[in-house]
């Protein structure tokens, strides 16, 4: 694992917590946003990122290597990246134009959209490296298997 990935994991957790707090605020205002399924999805996504995905992706390879399966890490990365992409695009499509957004819940949703976009970029970067690591793992496994197999043929 690359050492700078852990710094990105911390930023991902912070951004996930920010999205969680902003969407929880919007739900608590009882505005018409509080009844939006997009806000509910982003509330779930903040919880998913902060309490499930980032702790697993950050801690499993270091402290629990048996739980850090080489297919599960890229799968969690890809799923979380797709979730963030869908979430911030859906919320951005529902937002009114900035000229008509003068109440606190709308401003919170604008901030949520921005943090969601940054979160998607961060997960796109870490997903790329997780997939590259998976491909390198598969190649090294195939090479080791062929070498081991050829060694037995000559004996």
From TrEMBL:
Q: What is its main location?
A: membrane
Q: Which UniProt keywords apply?
A: Membrane, Transmembrane, Transmembrane helix
User: Which locations, inside or outside the cell, does it occupy?
Assistant: Membrane
Record Pfam families: MARVEL (PF01284)
Q: Which domain of life is it from?
A: Eukaryota
Q: Name one GO cellular component term.
A: membrane
TM segment ranges: 12-35, 41-64, 71-91, 111-131
Annotated ranges, domain MARVEL? 7-129
Bilayer disposition of the protein: Multi-pass membrane protein
Name recorded for this polypeptide: MARVEL domain-containing protein
Protein species of origin? Penicillium atrosanguineum
